[in-house]
Design brief:
The complex is a heterodimer of chains A (455) and B (399).
Chain A (H helix, E strand, L loop, with lengths): L2 H15 L6 H17 L4 H16 L9 H17 L14 E7 L5 H14 L4 E6 L6 H12 L3 E2 L5 H15 L3 E6 L7 H14 L3 E7 L5 H12 L4 E5 L8 H10 L3 E5 L7 E3 L2 H8 L5 H11 L2 H13 L4 H12 L4 H7 L5 H4 L5 H12 L3 H5 L6 H11 L3 H21 L2 H14 L7 H6 L2
Parallel strand pairs in A: 1-4, 1-5, 2-3, 2-4, 5-6, 6-7
Antiparallel strand pairs in A: 7-8
Helix pairs in contact in A: 1-2, 1-4, 2-3, 3-4, 4-11, 5-6, 7-8, 9-10, 14-17, 17-19, 19-20, 20-21
Chain B lengths: L1 H27 L30 H6 L23 H7 L9 H6 L6 H9 L5 H13 L4 H16 L7 H15 L14 E7 L6 H14 L5 E4 L7 H12 L2 E4 L6 H14 L4 E4 L9 H14 L4 E11 L5 H13 L3 E5 L9 H9 L3 E5 L7 E3 L2 H8 L2
Parallel strand pairs in B: 1-4, 1-5, 2-3, 2-4, 5-6, 6-7
Antiparallel strand pairs in B: 7-8
Helix pairs in contact in B: 5-6, 6-7, 7-8, 8-15, 9-10, 11-12, 13-14
Classes of the chains: A alpha/beta (455), B alpha/beta (399).
Chain lengths: 455, 399
């Protein structure tokens, strides 16, 4: 989501790069552009003023450095200011000494509370906890049913009954204590900040359950209203953090900056997709880097650590280096990679990936197709694709529901990869080759750039 | 851990390479039909559909009979300004409100007090100067109108002030701006249409959590109250319990509903709903779809297919309504553009306008894309869906 914002800055700084010095006029121009970019990114007007003010002070002030170009200097300043606005450090969850630890979610209608509740429960489970989901949204039709389905999906029990939100929440916490669940995640109904009656209700729920954590759930696509709503919820409830949802779209996500500034509490989690596994702790420093187009390798590594079997990856790497990496290995690794989430989001986090590629329509069905092709091969074929002749190819294609061209493409791509790895044996080569093929424009294989231009 | 990254990058390269080729080919194949969403619930061909829709109340039959023939080809739902029959407000009063409800204007207005500050200053000024324009700009930006549209409004005002077309008076300036906002929406077709001689389908599209299902529920209730039968198509087969949510609404309004199993191809659900409606002589199908971010290419393709299938006789897509959350910021314009490009959006439904958000992004949508704003949602109750009123909207924008 922050990609567009970083594109903006890209544009500004490209022009800046040509300049030798940063005079007052340049600072003005840069700040004007930054203001436009931030406003278009839905950063609230107050925050924009505040940010540009601070950036101006630092750019025109005494902090001029000799070792950096003006562009680098501005980037550095903007980066630091964004990071500090997004909130010093990540939230670290601590648990109640006497379980259960109660976590409550609140927010506007359609912000994504129910989905976030299930995702959060899954996250707690991954932390080795035993969460219980409590469905206290008795307002929206089938909200509890939705939570039950999601709970089943993530393997977390769901408690609810059709009494009243306060009673359900209270009983849910008691139930957790009774059955030995150590974390309770309470999903509440969506409500408008100005609906005094419902705001009182959510206050009552909080009073009845005294949550350790109250999270404000907010849609990343929210505009200027983010500030007002966040302020109102912050006034009504003792918020401990924010969950930012739907950041997998192309909204520029200025709401993140605004909400952070207004609520004064960290953005604890972000949801990056519709599935409960598309959910992760928020890292302000990484997000600021992402805004500036520097990629988010740290999140990727963390995700990889969590989902990837390191031993297997090590072995695969060895085989890659030795040129003994077969389609079978490839298939295995693909399974691992799939656990890291949708391809698109993985790609989005890699640094140095050209914009065209990042925005390319990468479809997880492509992975499925590749898998299907490999699965339609015999072990012998997977071991040595060279044995695949015309009739084998036809069989594989029909077995996987693809065409002979698809099979060919995969084989060609695979061979290319093997060749690269053998010749240089390093990832640098792989990445460089991506870049090279991009500029060459798909002579042997359709280039990555093509993928981008297809949109 | 970098090892893992290397492996990931290698895998990505291969998949991307192979996938791209496939993509090119598929792209050329004139967008053939596609299977349901990739990573989602696996469905066999055709997808075991759930049992036929539950028998509905006899009301449907009753409602159908008289005067149904006259409905084709003309505006159905909103009572436009021309036909002042029951105003939205009066209609609303007729139904039992769940909680104490004020008038719509009141409801939209009650949130605005907090903002009166910035423009209160304008009203108290007499001369027009740079500060006045700054305050107007601020008001527009805070309402999510967006910088480009705001600048257009203000540049136009400035030149008119310079030309002497607007008196040098701050409140006159504000009035002129309001008028500009109102005239932006002038002449737009806010009626909801029915197709001649076939089963009309109104398709509801939008990103996640904007209120598509709720909007359909309200419209269904409204149609039922007007004695017109509708069939609801539970085309959101992805989100957990979306079907149940719509079924609850169907029950409330006595409308029929056609559902598919979870993960079923939404096109097939809509297709079945059209068949079902046609077989029973019901003229209108309200088709729900799963929320989707406009950036998800495969999901947008899925939506295209839903539209194509719904448009197949006896069905005819009469309206494609983009449901937009009033809290949406500048991304709303992108959403509108992408959805319009994919499924020819015929109108916008602006929901959740009863909060503090003003939904100013519809100005940008109207001015850049020309899509009319047809309905607004102002609450969770059955009757809280009314025809968009530019005057009220403009007032709220600056209140």
């Amino acid at each position: 989501m922050f990609d567009t914002l970083s594109d903006r800055f890209d544009g500004i700084f490209k022009r800046l790069r040509g300049r030798g010095r940063l005079g007052d006029a340049e600072v003005d121009e840069v700040l004007r552009e930054i203001r436009v970019a931030l406003l278009e990114a839905d950063v609230s007007l107050d925050v924009v003023r505040d940010l540009t003010g601070r950036i101006r002070a630092r750019c025109t002030g005494a902090e001029l450095s000799k070792s950096l170009t003006p562009a680098q200097q501005v980037i550095k300043v903007v980066n630091e200011e964004l990071t500090s606005t997004l909130g010093g450090e990540a939230l670290r969850i601590s648990y109640a000494s006497r379980p259960p630890t109660v976590v409550m979610l609140a927010g506007l209608q359609g912000a994504g509370k129910t989905t976030a509740a299930a995702a959060l429960a899954r996250w707690f489970k991954q932390q080795g906890r035993h969460p219980l989901l409590v469905g206290a949204d008795l307002q929206r039709p089938a909200a509890v049913e939705q939570l039950r389905v999601l709970g089943r999906g993530v393997g977390v029990p769901v408690f609810s009954d059709p009494s009243s939100p306060v009673d359900v929440a209270r009983r849910g916490v008691a139930e957790a204590a009774r059955v030995g669940r150590d974390v309770v995640v309470i999903d509440t109904a969506g409500r408008l900040a100005i609906d005094t009656e419902l705001m009182q209700e959510v206050r009552d729920v909080a009073a009845a359950t005294s949550p350790q954590y109250t999270f404000f759930v907010v849609d990343a696509m929210t505009g200027q209203d983010a500030v007002r709503t966040a302020r109102a919820f912050g006034d009504a409830l003792a918020l401990d953090g924010v969950i930012l949802t739907k950041i997998d779209g192309d909204a520029r996500g200025g709401a993140a900056l605004s909400v952070k500034q207004v609520v004064g509490k960290p953005i604890a989690f972000v949801s990056t997709g519709e599935r409960p596994e598309d959910f992760e702790p928020f890292h302000p420093d990484r997000m600021a880097s992402r805004i500036l187009g520097m990629g988010d390798v740290l999140s990727l590594i963390e995700r990889a650590e969590r989902e990837y079997d390191a031993g297997a990856a090590e072995k695969a790497m060895e085989r890659l280096r030795a040129g003994r990496f077969t389609l079978e290995d490839f298939h295995d690794q693909l399974q691992q990679m799939k656990r890291m989430g949708p391809l698109q989001s993985v790609l989005g986090m890699l640094p140095g990936v050209p914009k065209e590629v990042r925005n390319a329509s990468i479809d997880d069905r492509d992975v499925a197709r590749v898998e299907a092709i490999i699965r339609s091969m015999t072990p012998a074929e997977r071991d040595d694709p060279a044995v695949i002749n015309g009739s084998r190819r036809a069989r594989i294609a029909s077995g996987s529901g693809t065409s002979a061209t698809d099979v060919n493409n995969l084989l060609r791509q695979f061979k290319e990869m093997q060749r690269l790895m053998r010749s240089s044996g390093a990832m640098g080569a792989a990445v460089r080759s991506a870049g090279r093929r991009k500029t060459k424009g798909g002579r042997v294989t359709p280039s990555l750039k093509d993928a981008g231009s297809l949109r | 851990m970098t090892t893992v990254l290397v492996v990931v990058i290698v895998l990505l390269l291969v998949v991307l390479g192979a996938g791209t080729a496939v993509y090119v080919r598929r792209g050329q194949a004139a967008g053939g039909t596609r299977p349901p969403r990739g990573p989602r619930a696996p469905v066999g061909p055709g997808g075991a559909r759930s049992a036929p829709p539950p028998p509905t109340s006899p009301e449907e039959v009753r409602a159908r009979a008289p005067g149904a023939g006259e409905r084709t080809g003309r505006a159905l739902v909103p009572e436009t300004e021309a036909a002042p029959a029951p105003t939205p407000d009066e209609e609303r009063v007729a139904s039992a409100p769940a909680r104490g409800r004020e008038g719509i204007a009141g409801r939209i207005g009650r949130a605005r007090d907090a903002l009166a500050g910035s423009l209160g200053a304008i009203r108290s000024r007499s001369r027009v100067d740079a500060t006045t324009f700054e305050q107007l700009e601020e008001a527009l930006l805070l309402a999510d109108v967006g910088l480009p549209t705001t600048s257009r409004f203000l540049d136009d005002l400035r030149s008119r002030v310079r030309a002497g077309a607007i008196p040098d008076d701050a409140s006159a300036l504000l009035e002129a701006l309001k008028q500009d906002v109102v005239s932006l929406f002038a002449g737009e077709d806010r009626s909801l249409h029915l197709a001649d001689g076939s089963t009309s389908v109104w398709l509801f599209v939008g990103v996640n959590g904007v209120g598509k299902t709720t909007t359909i529920g309200k419209l269904a209730a409204r149609e039922a109250a007007a004695g017109r039968a509708v069939v609801l198509a539970a085309g959101d087969t992805f989100r957990a319990a979306a079907g149940e949510q719509l079924a609850t609404w169907a029950e409330r309004s006595g409308a029929r509903i056609v559902r598919g199993s979870d993960g079923a191809d939404p096109s097939s659900v809509v297709f079945d709903a059209v068949q079902h409606a046609a077989a029973r002589g019901v003229a209108l199908v309200l088709a729900d779809t799963a929320g989707r971010l406009h950036t998800k290419v495969n999901l947008m393709d899925e939506l295209r297919k839903v539209r194509r299938v719904a448009d197949r006789p006896p069905g005819s897509v009469a309206e494609v309504l983009l449901v937009l959350d009033a809290t949406t910021g500048q991304n709303g314009l992108v959403q509108a553009r992408e959805f319009a490009e994919a499924v020819e959006v015929t109108g916008v439904v602006l929901t959740k306008l009863d909060g503090t958000a003003k939904g100013g992004i519809v100005c940008a949508i109207r001015s850049e894309l020309g899509i009319p704003i047809k309905l607004v949602g102002v609450g969770e109750g059955v009757d809280d869906l009314v025809v968009f009123d530019p005057v009220e909207f403009a007032d709220a924008l600056f209140s």
